[in-house]
C-alpha cells in the first residue's frame, strides 16, 4: 500500500530514470490531457510531497500524480516489454532514449503549471520525509482537535503528510491505544513520541518497498525516545497490520480488523486501550 515512504522511493526511482534527460515519448491517457505532448522537453526533477508525486518538466510544467490505494509507476529499460499490468490500466507514459516510466492505475493525474503546484499540495501539513519537516507543528496539528480519534488525525494529511493505514495501525499499537482513542486523552509525551516514531519508521523504510515496523533483533529496535517497549517480532515485519486473527506479538490475543479498505484499522484488543469502532 503506497504511503509516504513508498512514494518517496518511487520519486527517487523516477528521478534517476528521467531527470536531466529529454523526453522522446509522452502519452497521458486521461481525457483532459490526452492531447498534451511533452516530447522534446527535459525532465528537471521528480519529488515527493507526502503521498503526491511532482514531475517537473522544462517549460514550467508539472505532472502531478497520486497513487492512492493501488496506483504505481514502473520503470523499464527502453525497448523492454512493460509488465506492470494490462494496457488498459496504463494512465501515463514518459520515456527517453534509455528508460520508460509507465504509470498504472493512477487515480489522480494532471498536468499543471509548476507555479500552481500549491493548488495540489499546498494544503498538506509538514512532510515526514520532506525538507519542511517540523515535529512541533505536527504535534500542534494533531492536538488541535482533542476529541478526534488518533487514527483519523494521523491519516489527515493536513496535520502531517505521509501516514496511511499501515503506519496508523502500527503507531497506535506501539502507543498501546486503539486507533479510536481521542487525541486529547493520550498520556503526556505520547503525541510527541508518536510523531518522532512516525518520522523514524518512514526514514528507515524509505529505501525499500519491503516495509518493516518491527525491530530486526530483540526488543527496542524502533527507537530510543519512545515511552513504550516493542515486543520481539518473531519473524513478523508488521505488528498488527494485515494480521487479522493472528496472535498479538505482545500479549497473544487475536488481532482484529475494522473498517473499509481505504480506512481499515488493525488492533489488539488485549493490550491497546480505548474505544473500538
From TrEMBL:
Catalytic activity entry: 2'-deoxyribonucleotide-(2'-deoxyribose 5'-phosphate)-2'-deoxyribonucleotide-DNA = a 3'-end 2'-deoxyribonucleotide-(2,3-dehydro-2,3-deoxyribose 5'-phosphate)-DNA + a 5'-end 5'-phospho-2'-deoxyribonucleoside-DNA + H(+)
Cofactor field: Zn(2+)
Domain FPG-type residue range list: 239-273
SMART domains per UniProt: Fapy_DNA_glyco, H2TH
Protein EC: 4.2.99.18
CDD domains: AcNei2_N
Keywords: DNA damage, DNA repair, DNA-binding, Glycosidase, Hydrolase, Lyase, Metal-binding, Multifunctional enzyme, Zinc, Zinc-finger
Segments for region (Disordered): 210-232
Formamidopyrimidine-DNA glycosylase catalytic domain location: 2-130
EC primary class: lyase
InterPro entries: DNA_glyclase_Znf_dom_DNA_BS, FPG_cat, FPG_N, H2TH_FPG, Nei2_N, Ribosomal_uS13-like_H2TH, Znf_DNA_glyclase/AP_lyase, Znf_FPG/IleRS
Family recorded in the similarity comment: Belongs to the FPG family.
Name of the protein: DNA-(apurinic or apyrimidinic site) lyase
Source species: Streptomyces spongiicola
